[in-house]
Specification:
It is a single chain. With 254 residues, the chain is of the alpha/beta class. The protein has ten helices and seven strands. Strand 1, helix 2 (37-46) and strand 2 (50-54) form a beta-alpha-beta unit. Helix 3 crosses helix 5 (92-101). The protein starts with 7 loop residues before the first helix and ends in a 13-residue tail after the last helix.
Length: 254
């Protein structure tokens, strides 16, 4: 769909319009597969503005990951929600490479998928980035097993969560009020020092129209504390993803 495309130039225009200094670009599993050339080109064009999450083979070598890291990639996407638990069940060597390089394993899980992978993830020692609030079932509540397991991983000190795509954990249209308790639970468990915000632009497979501006406005409503927003929008992603120091921001860095 044309509405789901987004070039590097278009991304730059969106970020400029909202005063966003830096961003983490996530390579999608769909469309590009294992081809990271567009991601790497966008990072290069950004000249320090962007970091990336790449898609790699489950048996990617340490050298391959080092090459990606040298090009501005800070982690690898593991899309369990799309490809299933079995696809990632035996990825301990990849996770150990990520651990050794201090790169992130970005996990898109949904419902209770984490339960099957939790032991492997914990044993790996890798840094874990859970995407889209962990995609809990909208009607199952914060005590549902998969979401509760993710909250418990805050105690490891090496897990963070991306507050993005509330549409993916909501059964209601914008502003997704049934997802708000999950955001609050994540704030309580992880704190702003282990949370980052993401727009999910250009909104692949969205069930309805989504725009960058309303998402920013919703986040301000959910987090009225300006210092918490500053941490999640700017300080935490800059620290965790290795962005260069910039003047203090009032708009998101991710």
């Amino acid at each position: 769909m044309g509405g789901e495309t987004g070039t590097a130039a278009q991304l730059g225009h969106v970020l400029d319009a909202h005063g966003v200094q830096q961003a983490l670009i996530v390579g999608p599993n769909s469309g590009y597969g294992l081809d990271n050339r567009c991601l790497l080109d966008a990072i290069k064009q950004g000249a320090g503005r962007y970091k990336g999450i790449a898609v790699v083979r489950n048996n990617a070598s340490l050298a391959e990951l080092q090459d990606l890291q040298g090009a501005g990639v800070v982690g690898v996407a593991m899309n369990v929600a799309l490809l299933g638990i079995d696809f990632y069940r035996h990825t301990s060597p990849l996770l150990q490479h990520l651990r050794d390089l201090k790169m992130w394993a970005q996990l898109q899980i949904e419902a209770d998928q984490l339960l099957d992978l939790r032991a492997m993830l914990q044993a790996s020692g890798a840094q874990l980035l859970f995407d889209h609030c962990g995609r809990p079932e909208p009607k199952a509540g914060i005590s549902q097993a998969g979401f509760a397991a993710m909250l418990a991983m805050a105690d490891t000190g090496r897990a963070i969560v991306k507050l993005s795509s509330l549409v993916k954990c909501s059964a209601l249209p914008y502003p997704y009020p049934d997802a708000w308790p999950y955001v609050q639970a994540l704030l309580d468990a992880f704190s702003p020092q282990s949370l980052v915000w993401g727009s999910d632009w250009p909104f692949l497979r969205a069930p309805e129209r989504i725009d960058y501006g309303p998402l920013l406005a919703l986040f301000e409503k959910l987090l009225p504390d300006a210092s918490a927003r500053q941490a999640i929008w700017y300080d935490t992603p800059r620290r965790l993803f290795g962005f260069d120091e910039q003047p203090k921001a009032t708009a998101p860095a991710s």
